Amino acid sequence: FLGVMPAYSAADDALTTKLVTFYEHKKDSSVPSHQATILFFEPSNGSLKAVIDGSVITAKRTAAVSAIATKLLMPPFAEVLCILGAGVQAYSHYDIFTELFTFKEVRIWNRTKEKAVKFAASVTGPVQVCSSAQEAVTGADVIVTVTMATTPILFGDWVKPGAHINAVGASRPDWRELDDELMKNSVLFVDSREAALTESGDVILSGAEIFAELGEVLQGTKPALPEKTTVFKSLGMAVEDTVAAKFVHDSWSAGN
Hints:
Belongs to the ornithine cyclodeaminase/mu-crystallin family. Homodimer. Binds the thyroid hormone triiodothyronine (T3); T3 binding inhibits enzymatic activity. Pfam families: OCD_Mu_crystall. The protein folds into two domains: 2-56 and 239-255, ornithine cyclodeaminase, domain 1 (2-Layer Sandwich); 59-237, Rossmann fold (3-Layer(aba) Sandwich), CATH 3.40.50.720. It has helices at 54-73, 88-100, 113-122, 133-137, 180-184, 193-199, 201-206, 214-219, 238-255, and strands at residues 2-9, 14-22, 34-41, 48-53, 80-84, 105-109, 128-129, 142-145, 164-167, 187-190, 210-213, 230-233. Helix 2 (88-100) links the parallel strand 5 and strand 6. The radius of gyration is 18 Å and the shape is globular. It is 35% helix and 25% strand. The chain starts with a strand and ends with a helix. The strands form two sheets. Strands 7-6-5-8-9-12-10-11 form an eight-stranded parallel β-sheet.
């Protein structure tokens, strides 16, 4: 797939387009599944001001949004973090989650165990490599799914009541990471209702009802409900790339 994600932020006076290629690698590949470039324009006249590494921004802004959701929705005494998947997004989520939150235990599972072992060896803190997704998930307070799964790998009967799940993979209308039981028995938050109802197989195929957009919680128009089992379905929004690219460009400009 080749995706084009244009956005203008009036609040930041920033205009960008992200070009992202998405290739489903049947075998483990040294090339990431997602690669991206951001074009940064001058909003007043349309001239191109910068070409920015979109892969780094995608990884970091996605994890940052998951962290915001987690801060709002996780149970008050969260001790165990579980990450399903060991790709680029696993690293960016690990970095921000261990920086912002204090977990006593971090677990990881990946379909190819070697990648999970490599992940555990390369990050700064202790990580427990689990032999199955169920082992990783059981008793976890916060769960992050960042896989290339097309059918469910996380099941409701494994999940601790009151846990918070950030569902980041399965970005196609016919792909799943979470099963129907989990989707229907959790309070569902999304980044964009419109996107979730057209792009997320977890939402579309389960028929789960969307409770709120994350922005509604941030604005105070919908409650967070951290005492419930919660799912944040992340698909990513072009405006996130725009704001992040503006931040990078302004920082770079200041340095020059």
